[in-house]
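To whoever is on call:

I kicked off a structure prediction for a single chain this morning and the downstream step that reads the tokens threw a length-mismatch warning. I double-checked the sequence; it's 202 residues and nothing unusual in it as far as I can see. Pasting both halves so you can look.
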Amino acid sequence: MMNVADAETRQTARPGLWAGLFAVNMALIAVLSITDALEQPVPVILIALNCVLLIPMVKAALRRMEDKGAVTTAVRRYNRRFLGASLLYAVSMIGAGTATNYIAANSPLMWALAVLPMLPAFGMIWAMMRYLAEETDEYQRHRAVQASMVGLALVLVLGTGWGFLETFGLVPHIWAWWVFPAWAMGLGIGMAISEWRHGGSA
């Protein structure tokens, strides 16, 4: 029988809520940046701070899976890898965005600052690839693939659509580094949809 503590945990473990909040915040930052309501490096710093939401999201997902007895070794490894890379991504973006104010534009250090956030971004993608390779539970792997495909679909649709609109001078130009945040936003949406569809299943 489930005790009071377990019941409270089941009620509060809502990874879809955190994933949806992450996606909404990312979309708001994108809109404010595209409309020039925010000046650089403010959008970069806000995106990095928004990555902090990945911590409660991952913890809530783990609690939910533990409640259903669906936690595998691959899931635990993925959580550690992805969360670690996410935190490094946030730190590197804040650090690089702040350091640009103190380094000359033609300095070789600018190349290092530009490349720095790319490394943990690759780390997050690598973590997902390793998870899909290590996960033996087909149902969990299926849900992970679905969420990642939502992220990919969002990137392809937004990127292609915005590119055509920009070609005809209907929208302003946006920097290409928005591709990864857009994928992360789609991943969050995919996780929220999956949680909504399967959250109540045992």
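Update from on-call: the warning came from a stale cache, not from the record. Cleared it. Sanity check on the structure: Residues 4-11 have pLDDT under 50 and may be disordered.
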